[in-house]
Amino acid sequence: MSRLVVVSNRVAPIQEGEATAGGLAAGVLDALKQKGGLWFGWSGEISAGLEPKPERTVGPISLFTIDLSRQDYDEFYRGFANGTLWPVLHYQIGLGRFEWAEFEGYRRVNGLFAAALTPLIRPDDLIWVHDYHLLCLAGALRANGVSNRIGLFLHTPFPAPDVFMTIPSHASLIQAMCAYDLLGFQTETDRTAFIDYVVRHANGVPTAIDDAVAVFGRVVRTGVYPIGVHVEDVRAQAETPINRRQATRMRANLLEGLILSVDRLDYSKGLRQRFAAFERFLADNPARHGLVTFMQIAPPSRSDIETYQRIRRELEGEAGRINGRFAEVDWVPLRYLNRSFPRNVLMPLYAEAQACLVTPLRDGMNLVAKEYVAAQDPEDPGVLILSEFAGAARELDAALLINPYDEAGMAQAIEQALSMPLEERQDRHQAMLTVMRTNSLERWRDRFEADLVGDGG
Length: 457
Ligand code: GDG
Known about the structure:
457 residues, 10-stranded mixed sheet, Rossmann fold, 2 domains, alpha/beta, 16 helices, binds GDP-alpha-D-glucose, 6-stranded parallel sheet
């Protein structure tokens, strides 16, 4: 059996025996634990010396990391990856910026990753690369003589070609992506958009099998692998009595209805529009005043990037204004918590919430939506209100699907969720659970690996 080599921008901080990580980390960790393997990425530290850090081992997993220089960090991470690619991949072209020097920095860091990784690769290793930070890694590894199978899974959306082409270096990026053997996407919409680009703008020719495309003198396979969650683990965490204590206390304080949202503080998550929708809901439904609380948990992320500082300022202002408009001496309608919470606190909170608002403007998948469904008591489940532009909406079509740009529509969906009869809640929940059990995290991992090996059919 070949060894698995995982490469991602960051290596998750893992401890022996840990079973609490979210999404990517949980899926990758399971795979590495089962087969043994190597995980390579940036240490998260900035330093002048670019020597790889000493290897760390956790059970059968070897962890290798490198530091980045200040210039690498600025050009690669803050610059091209998060200042250009992230907004454009999420259709926010007005928030994207572009500098050729940053693109060169991005390519340079992909080259640094390749240089440090190449000596660690054995001939039959399977190399699984993650996400938009490393679109150019396969090409850099190939230039070093690595001929192993290399696959990329893109956790973000892939946008329509005209949107992607707003990045001036789009042609080089696509050519770099085509150095992979397998390109994995969250949804068929993303995969089709990529193929559309390659066929219309790079003379690619789709082949009859494996959703592959012949382009740049090679054949690149593509596939759709929706990432899932460990359904039973989430429910177990939500139910554990010791975890539940805080949630139960909170429920006693919050009267009837808790509406919950959990997001990294990111403009792609649609928080501003969601706050506006909640304000409209309060204005339209005075009977709910004093009874409903909307809790937004939003741990800050990428806070050294201007667009992220701006959205944070805006949301703080909006939260204050909405509470100023509606609060009573004994009731605060919006609780905005600008920090992260341990996972064993979060899962019971999901279980307590009568509704969960997941309203990104675009999202590759959105695991909060899936975790919320998994955490519910099947006898008395809450209602998921979900953006039609989240990848998760392709599978969870039994949620209340909304358009995140439609504030009135979202306000109505909140009222519909709060007054939904038990039987309808149970039916919707059951339908979503069935899909999630089929498209499990194990299946995501196993299908990707099988297709990368080439024996996936
Ligand atoms: C990218 C793609 C895709 C959030 N707050 C806290 C916390 N979280 C956890 C959630 C969930 C994860 O973080 C967030 O995952 P999402 O999928 O919602 O979003 P991104 O971070 O943008 O992830 C996305 C994903 O990759 C996987 O492919 O679905 O589309 O953008 O697991 O629970 N966890 C803890 N405290 C918090 O305060 N412990």
